[in-house]
Design brief:
about 150 residues, alpha+beta, five-stranded mixed sheet, three-stranded mixed sheet, binds copper (II) ion
């Protein structure tokens, strides 16, 4: 009983840190679940979503290492769950809502990005990859996508 309360007491602080205060982010990316893909929209050089330089990709989330990334999660059909097991992040994507999640990847690499909510017959194949790039790699990736005119 005491231990349980202690966990609740200590856990509340951690929960508040992770879920309560979203730190100011370096990058905002929109991730939309739809049967059976993750649709990823990057804001482009202007840093704003919903503008002409947005770029859409399927199942590939590219981010720089050591930066706070804000994910605006949506769903086009049913409930999906955005899961980055290596980063201990799991958040439902719910139709009709935009839910903000965030992470800061500390190690470059390629990590699994499955859907963790049974969302239909194609659920088991629904997944993508999180690519965490070094600062230099990321810069090159951006240059390739948005070459300056
Ligand atoms: Cu799904």
């Amino acid at each position: 009983m005491f231990l349980d309360l202690w966990i609740d007491f200590r856990g509340a602080e951690v929960w508040a840190k992770i879920k309560g205060r979203v730190p100011s982010s370096d990058l905002v990316i929109q991730v939309t679940g739809k049967q059976f893909n993750w649709e990823i929209v990057y804001p482009g050089p202007d840093g704003r979503l919903g503008t002409v330089d947005d770029l859409q990709m399927e199942n590939e989330l590219h981010v720089p290492v050591g930066k706070v990334v804000r994910v605006a999660l949506k769903s086009k059909d049913v409930i999906h769950s955005f899961f980055l097991p290596n980063l201990r992040l799991k958040q439902d994507a719910v139709p009709g809502r935009e839910i903000v999640a965030w992470f800061e990847a500390t190690k470059p690499g390629k990590y699994e990005m499955p859907c963790a909510e049974l969302c239909g017959f194609g659920h088991s194949g629904m997944g993508g990859w999180l690519y965490v790039h070094t600062a230099e790699e990321y810069e090159n990736w951006v240059k390739e996508r948005w070459p300056e005119k």
